[in-house]
Amino acid sequence: GSVTSFIVQYMKINWDLLGELTLGIFSVINAGSLFLMYLTTNIWACYTSYLVFKACYMFLITVATFQIAVTLSVERYALVFGFNNFMALLIQTILTAVVVDSRGLGLDIATQFLIYGSYFAVIAGIFFIRSICTLLSRKCK
């Protein structure tokens, strides 16, 4: 994960134009990794899938943080990133309470991979829709 985060600084990509598309592609890879962990019983495939997932996830976090940071003034960093972390923890807590906790659905491990893979697939769809809108608006200009 740290290697992929480090590599981002050397990538020559127009993040304003292709940022959401990149986030969508890596979200699809994450969803695929989680779906593979759901479908397989091979421990090595699961370990490999987890490594791919973690590397892509760290890349996603780095790119998303960069995308947000370029549009902010320095005075607003703490407010925006504090709020983003709060919302991420809130969503994580809700998902954990619903999916994992025995008072919620209390799903088995394999089904949890299916739920989280679906979550990343929905996020990928949102990024792809946003990237199509961005690309079309740039083309129309």
Automatic annotation (TrEMBL):
UniProt keyword Metal-binding present: no
Transmembrane regions: 21-39, 51-70, 77-100, 112-136
UniProt keyword list: Membrane, Transmembrane, Transmembrane helix
Keyword presence, Membrane: yes
One Pfam family it belongs to: Folate_carrier
GO molecular-function term, one example from the UniProt record: thiamine transmembrane transporter activity
GO-annotated cellular components: plasma membrane
InterPro entries xref list: Folate_carrier
Family: Belongs to the reduced folate carrier (RFC) transporter (TC 2.A.48) family.
Protein name as catalogued: Thiamine transporter 2
Protein source organism: Merops nubicus (Northern carmine bee-eater)
